[in-house]
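Rather than argue in generalities, we have chosen a single entry, letters for residues, whole numbers for local backbone shapes, without further comment.
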Amino acid sequence: MMRKNILVIGGTGLVGKVILRILQGRNPSYNLFVGSRQLGKANNDLVIDVTNPKTFNCITDNKIDLIVMCTKDSNNEILRFAIQNKLDYIDITKPTPDLAVAYDLAKANKQNINSHIVFSSGWMGGIVGSLVDFVEPDKRKIQETNLYIYYSIKDLAGKSSANFLAENVCKPFVVYKNNAPKEVKHFLDSEKFNFEFGIGKRQAYNLDVPDLFILNQIEKIPTVSVKMTYNSKFVTSLMGYFQSLKIFNIMFLKERQLLFGSSGNGDQTVFEVIVKTQNKTKRVSLQSVKGQAELTAFSTVLHIEKMLSETLSNGIYFSHQMHSSQEIYKALNSYNTINLKIS
């Protein structure tokens, strides 16, 4: 078997580092490269600036098989490069509007795709779709899916999520009710939700994650919503006040970035997926003891392993479309810092 060459662009960032660690532990035969703007000290460090395609030559020079995007590529330069050069590609960073653009670009090039192009920008590396599949394999029966997120400000968080909220907190985004798109704003429309794992009842507020787009537009689930709460009830209600009083609107971007930037040393992350059919409500509760970065990275590693397994035909995928949901459930369940409950 040929040694697989994998390039993690943004591999010096929080999630990128964890992906590299887990990949190395599980697949010592993979050859791992780190792409970033500054040249690192190791032999496998490559200088890649996503805004400058002239820096991409090192990708073909090093015979890279698969590119993992852990950094923002607003113009989709790397996506285009991967399609042109028949390279496997997975992106875990795109917020909803960017994801829709990238997906359209890939579809427009469908005839030329001779590799796996995978969009994995859903919540926690796009595993929500697989968990929905697991509890209800027949999507036509599903009338509604709700995602509830418990987010700890003590968690280690990458810059990108904080910056996304800072940039988009004042802009409306879309949720779906009976297939009708409805514009809402972050941190409004609070709803009381009882979280598992000892967290209990919390007020949860609107949050924009790509699963809204994926579950409605791709999986055709008529009603989809996402709500989140912070570990601090004070911070959660503060965000609600700030939004309803339009305080975010008068803050500078830098100030908003400081507000959303979390500088914790690590904490648990929890999310709950509620799937409603005509006669049943099913619920999956997931806890990652080591927080968001670990869970996102582990999910991404599962996708990478699948892409390189030689069992997958070429084409465009959202990450959950590559797997059987049983595989994903089993892998998550056997990982030592992840706990799952189904009810």
In short: Residues 292-307 form the longest helix (16 residues).
